[in-house]
Give the backbone structure.
Amino acid sequence: MNFNGKVAMVTGASVGIGRACAVRFAKEGAKLVLLDMDFARLEKVKEEVAPYTTEVAIYECDVSNEARVNEVSADALKRFGKIDILVNNAAIWRTWKPFIEVSIEEWKKFIDINVMGVVYCTRAVLGSMIANHYGRIVNVGSVAGVYGNANMSHYSATKGALISLTKALAKEVIHDGVLVNCVSPGSVSSSKDENMDAYTPSDLCHMGRSGTDNENANLICFIASDESSYISGQNIQIDGCRKKL
């Protein structure tokens, strides 16, 4: 993969899959626009990618805040002149509750971040992609959006919405040179682990372990590259041969 001359924007970029994407893009020559609510961690990622690129803009940003998303996106476009790649990775998920115990406020929070955050970020950069007749949008979904996970109804619903959004938007913008895909991980390693090749045992897939941050980032970056120029409107699962529980 070669991202020389490309500008990649990654949300939720301070830890986990987002951080691994930032590092992989940097290693392959991309300029970076990194968003996260944890600015201190973003600064550490900026230091981490410094051996590969110094063309890095970092922004403290809650993707559920439309005004802030528009502000930082406009600033990044002014600085770099374009956004070629958008990885919509920011999300919340670690909660397990029966449907009847999930409050309406929690439903709204999940929708605001996991769905509307993607909408806001995509709207903020899509016009530039269309104008340049080039763009790659990769949404990070989940197998929960495919199968539905018990006691994660609100998370499953938001990721299912994201998969459908991917398929619909891809059909709208493909003739504008913009490709839109979704990557749906199964079990993932803890985002608190600094080792991007770390994994843990898992009974949820036939491979018997979680996927690493680097494994997920490798797929996302491939889908964002020119080597995947005939792929759009797809939801690609990366799940170690998931057991359909």
Summary: The longest strand covers residues 178-185. Strands lie at 7-11, 31-36, 56-60, 85-88, 135-140, 178-185, 235-238.
